[in-house]
Amino acid sequence: MKRSKKWLSLALVFGMAFSMVVPVYAGGRNGNKASLEYVYIDNYKVQEASAEQEKQNEKYAEASVDNVWQFVLDRCQVAEDRSTKEMTTIIYTTTGVNEIFRESKEITGVFHMGDAMYVEYKSGDGKEITLVYTGKERVQLLVYDPKTDELYSDLYGKKELHKNFRHGTQIVLTDESLKLLDRASPEEWQRLAEESEKYDEIFFPEVENLLTARGSGSGEKGATNPAELLADLKSNFPMYTDQLKRSTWRYCAALSKNVAIRVSETRNGYIKVKADFRSFVINTTFTTIAAKLSISSLWVAPVLTVAGIAYSALGFITEAATLVHSAEYRFLGQRIGRVFDSTRFNAYVRTVTKSGYGKFSGGYDSSGIFRWIISGSCPAYEKTYEQLADIAMSNYNADIVSHGTCTYEP
Q1: What tens digit of pLDDT does each residue of 287-344 get?
Q2: Which residue has the higher pLDDT, 301 or 11?
Q3: Which position has the higher pLDDT, 197 or 205?
Q4: What is the spatial distance between Cα 359 and Cα 178, in angstroms, rounded to a whole number?
Q5: Which residues contact 282 (CB under 8 A, 6 or more apart)?
Q6: How many angstroms separate the CA atoms of 368 and 362, rounded?
Q7: pLDDT at 227
Q8: Domain count of the chain?
Q9: CA Rg, the chain, in Å?
Q10: pLDDT for the residue numbered 354
Q11: What per-residue string of b and e applies to 78-106 under the rule 16 or more CB within 10 Å gives b?
Q12: Is 139 a member of any domain?
């Protein structure tokens, strides 16, 4: 596949943040018509934690008992056993656990998974904490700060600070492209949507090559990876064009009779606005993946299973993977009111059209399921089907009064 000259001139500095602009088409423009452009941003950085950072974060692991695992077994009840032949997974009640961690405001999870006991909580200062124990020993501590998007990790004694952890690796439309969408007509929007569907075929192989070069491994897999987002969205919110939503009647004073009306609706032209994702190398822990996806470590195994990504009962992946944290798409919406005209066409004529653009947002819910919602209302849908039927008849009636016949077209 032919590549853009912009691709060929890219210089990579490994270990540093970088961004690049990649047009939908390799040529950058479709004749004299503007094309969408996306920016790939990688501001994620990882560095060895300083002694001061270690001191600031280790307090979240402080417990008033020597053996947290034994405390859970003695004080908590089994709430649910989700064990499979591949992995032991036992969820416990949280009775008394909140009291043994000085920094805890709310315990969000206590469970035995694989060969370890996990405790997850939210601290009084708004941080998200994960602790992992094998026997009496604490082997993992993760402290995520939503305010700074920084993750402190102590994994088997290796202490690191991850900057721009959840939101540092993104694909976003450029500002100029967003302005292009804001002023696009419905016809122009459809053209841009068709172009954007071809975007992943050009862009993502290059991104994977970049990630491989920066040490993220090769052969990434993932059910909800960036290149599959659109297909996943369409399976949850299918597109449709001019779909009949209401057949009704309204009285036409100019013709002194009831006239048939149809109201139809369109939802299509899905265009990616941004996607926030991360590639994980082999041996990345469940806790790190969970922190990135904003889910409990309890749900990482099901996510990996759906994605077809291999993992160990010890709580880490055994092959490289790319997973999406969140995404946003825009769509074109329309509602059309048509009136059956008997004065000229003996057919339905379009007397009112409402057009506008809405927004989908995708992300993981508290059960580790990637879900899509309509997060931005579409102005085209503000009027109900019945209200649009009223407007359609009002316009038609006024047209007959003014011209003696219908001037609207089928």
Answers
A1: 999 999 999 999 999 999 888 889 998 899 999 888 889 999 999 999 999 999 999 9
A2: 301
A3: 197
A4: 13
A5: 217, 317, 318, 319, 320
A6: 12
A7: 64
A8: 1
A9: 28
A10: 97
A11: eeeeeeeeebbbbbbebeebeebbebbee
A12: yes
Asked whether residue 194 is assigned to any structural domain, the reply reads: no
Give the Cα separation of 225 and 234 in Å (integer). 15
What whole-number distance in Å separates Cα of residue 339 and Cα of residue 289? Answer: 55
Measured between alpha carbons, how far apart are the two ends of the chain, in Å? 43
What range defines the domain where residue 82 resides?
45-163
% of the chain exceeding 70 in pLDDT: 85
- The answer to whether residue 373 is domain-embedded is no
Q: What is the DSSP string of 16-29?
A: S-EEEEEESSTTSE
E-assigned strand segments in 43-123: 45-48, 78-81, 89-92, 104-113, 116-123
DSSP assignment, residue 60?
Answer: G
The predicted structure's pLDDT at residue 305: 87
Residue 15 and residue 148 in contact, taking contact as beta carbons nearer than 8 Å: no
Q: Is the pLDDT of residue 224 over 60?
A: no
Half-sphere exposure of 47 (CA within 13 A, CB side): 12
Task: For residues 140 and 214, give the distance between their C-alpha atoms in angstroms, rounded to a whole number.
Answer: 25
With a cut of 70, say whether residue 26 has pLDDT above it.
Answer: no
Tell me how many helices (H) and strands (E) the chain has.
Answer: 11, 21
Counting beta carbons within 10 angstroms of the beta carbon of residue 383, is it exposed (0 to 12), middle (13 to 18) or buried (19 or more)?
Answer: middle
Kindly provide the b/e burial profile for residues 279-293, where b requires at least 16 CB atoms within 10 angstroms of the residue's own CB.
Answer: bbeeebbbbbbbbbb
Yes or no: say if 378 and 333 are a contact pair by the CB < 8 Å rule. Answer: yes
pTM of model > 0.70 = yes
Helix-helix angle 186-197:175-182, to 10 degrees: 140
**Structure token digits, residue 280:** 């994980």
Residue 252 forms part of a structural domain: no
The H or E element containing residue 362 is strand 347-364
